[in-house]
Structure formats: structure tokens, C-alpha cells
Design brief:
Length: about 200
């Protein structure tokens, strides 16, 4: 069995800026292990978590993703602000938000908003392979860490609030990839099983 997910990566310059802020937060973490920090090389935007799949499912998944890629144009996103799920007060996840750079009028219509539109297209395509459609609202983000101790988090929170409106730069999203995740003692290892391009306009 393969633990798998579908994701896109961000521009190296954007990941570098996010990593700088993550390093600042890590230095403020006075309680070792209070937050399980994401390794820089693992930072990405998850579009759909698939869970455990069989090896023989890889090819059909990539075929469906190619269909999505032929219908969805490449687009640009901005990494901006820090936050926490479910709230900044008592979070389980620390994240950097991702936002479409399209104009405000377009963003009011999901069909013309690239990130939610891409997510919806993937959900629809994979439902044809009997993957359940995600019922939770799509909240595009990059995970910086997972909180394990509220006391440790309380030391970090003031710094997170300082970065609530910071921009980390923009990325062109021009391909989607299927990854496997192998859980190791020092964190997961992600390996791309295949990727497909989006339409170049």
C-alpha cells in the first residue's frame, strides 16, 4: 500500500521566505517538541489527500489528472499571512495562507477562481475512481508545523501575530503531482510518482 496525496509546489523563493519565518518561530519555541515543524523540502499545497492506495491505482489516477490538466490553465498564487487551524488561540496546525492573484470580481465566482476551481476539478475527476469527495471547505495553505503543547504555543503566538499580514511572494502553479508519503522517525519522506502540466496560456 502507498500513502498518497495530490499537491503542487511553490516557487523556491517563496518557500525560502516562508522558511525564514519558520526559523524565527522555531527559535522562540522554548519547549522542545512543542511544535512538530515541517521540513522545508516538504512544504507544499495539498489539493487532495488520498490515504492508502494500491500500486495499480497510480496509473488511473495520473490519467484522470491529465484530463484535469488539459482543462485547467496555469495560474499564479500569493503566499500571504500566518494563521492556525482551527484558531490562533488553540491551533493544531500553523499555516501560511495561499491566495489567488486574480481580481476581486473573479474571486467571487468559484468557477473563475483558479485554486478552488482546480481543487473541485480534481475532486470530480477522482470521484470517478471511487475516491470520496472531500466534504470540508477547501482552505489552501502551507503547513509550517503541528502544535503539540499549548504552553509552548503561547510563547510563539505573539510572533505569529506579527506575520499575520506578511506576503511571502508569488508562485506560478503550472503542474499538479501525485506523491507518496513514507513515514520515517524524523518525519515523512515525499516522493513524486508523476506529474502533469496545466494549460500554458
Amino acid at each position: 500500500m502507498i500513502r498518497a496525496f495530490i499537491a503542487v509546489t511553490l516557487a523556491p523563493s517563496v518557500v525560502e521566505e516562508i522558511a525564514k519565518v519558520q526559523a524565527v518561530l522555531r527559535r522562540a519555541d522554548g519547549e522542545p517538541g512543542a511544535v512538530r515543524w515541517t521540513r522545508v523540502e516538504n512544504m507544499h499545497l495539498t489539493l487532495k489527500f488520498l490515504g492508502n492506495i494500491d500500486q495499480h491505482q497510480v496509473a488511473p489516477i495520473l490519467t484522470r489528472l491529465r484530463h484535469v490538466g488539459r482543462d485547467c490553465p496555469a495560474f499564479q498564487v500569493e503566499a500571504r499571512q500566518l494563521g492556525g487551524f482551527p484558531s490562533l488561540g488553540r491551533p493544531r496546525v500553523i499555516w501560511a495562507g495561499l491566495h489567488d492573484t486574480a481580481n476581486a470580481e473573479a474571486l467571487q465566482d468559484e468557477q473563475h477562481s483558479p485554486l478552488p476551481g482546480l481543487s473541485k476539478a480534481i475532486e470530480t475527476a477522482l470521484s470517478e475512481l471511487d475516491f470520496p469527495v472531500e466534504q470540508r471547505a477547501f482552505r489552501p495553505h502551507v503547513t509550517l508545523g503541528r502544535v503539540r503543547s499549548q504552553r509552548g504555543w503561547d510563547r510563539i503566538l505573539p510572533l505569529v501575530q506579527d506575520y499575520r499580514h506578511t506576503s511571502f511572494g508569488t508562485s506560478v502553479i503550472d503542474r499538479i503531482s501525485l506523491y507518496r508519503s513514507d513515514l520515517e522517525s524524523n518525519g515523512p519522506i515525499y516522493t513524486a510518482l508523476g506529474s502533469v502540466p496545466l494549460i500554458k496560456e
